[in-house]
Model the fold of this input.
Amino acid sequence: HRFSSAASPQVEQNEASSDILHNIRNLAVIAHVDHGKTTLMDRLLKQCGNSLLQERTMDSISLERERGITIASKYTSMSWGGVDLNVVDTPGHADFGGEVERVIGMVEGAILVVDAGEGPLAQTKFVVAKALKFGLRPILLLNKVDRPTVTAERCGEVESMIFDLFANLGATEEQLEFPVLYASAKEGWASRTFVKVPKEEERNMAPLLDAVLKFVPPPKGDLKAPFQMLVSMMERDNYFGRILTGRIASGQVRVGERVHGLRVKGSGGEVIEVGKVVKLMKKRGTTIVPVDSAGAGDIVSLCGLSNPSIGHTVSAVEITTPLPATIMDPPTISMT
Ligand code: GDP
Done:
């Protein structure tokens, strides 16, 4: 970690008294371009009932209409089995290496989407290297199983290729025991066993969502500690100024509270702004929903500060030490 020297006694203390946040899962969807990430996300949202019509609460309608607010950052949330799933989208391309790491640093798990016909390609290798390095244990989703050329044998081959890729990238024994599911995101189903044409009642995404609950560990964080969040995504809004999105490392934040914007300086930190949280929001499906408060382990968007940016920390006024940013050396793998 480049900023490991910034780790404070406060952070260590937080780790010692971590709550396990069983009602949250944070995960990334990673894939080579065209392997079906967008189609899959759309199906997952539909399965969780986060369709545009159902989720358009009065609040979010007025917020968007009055202020024209949009959050372009690539994350959303949905609810499955009483658990909030925060899902972040990861660019597959090596040009976005820093962004990939920031996004992967926000989550405890990943769905690795691989076109079962094509097998793993350059960007698969790139994102897998990042995910493994951050200690994630991806769930392998062999997609496009509906295609005529995709047989059980072909899936077996692709599974071995993925195993070899993981092994070559230094995966741990636990990471090598990745769960595998078979899917047609296009037709809207996933299965724990290989099928070409699932029964009508099994043509849905429930097996994948259940696998997420089972295999993605819940986040940890001390809810009673002071609030701290690392900014992982940032965008500007005409009315609200900066929208800072990140994962809450500890504590809770409420609308109206005073917070610090901090950046790393030397072996400590520097306060770059003190301000009030004027708005907290979550993306729900494709909509923005205002929330009154958010707690450790959750991913939230915050407005009210105008200076902090990506890699900076927003914290309760009593904390003046920034969180270590998740910036690491790029993996030394060839992209060919
Ligand atoms: P992304 O680039 O990973 O986001 O991929 P998209 O979701 O945009 O999908 C790329 C193309 O593959 C589109 O034409 C999709 O319709 C198609 N596609 C996605 N999932 C499936 C699938 O399960 N089966 C088939 N046959 N095509 C799929």
User: Anything to note?
Assistant: Confidence is low (pLDDT under 50) at residues 1-15, 51-59, 327-336. The chain is about 25% helix and 30% strand. The first helix runs from residue 9 to 16.
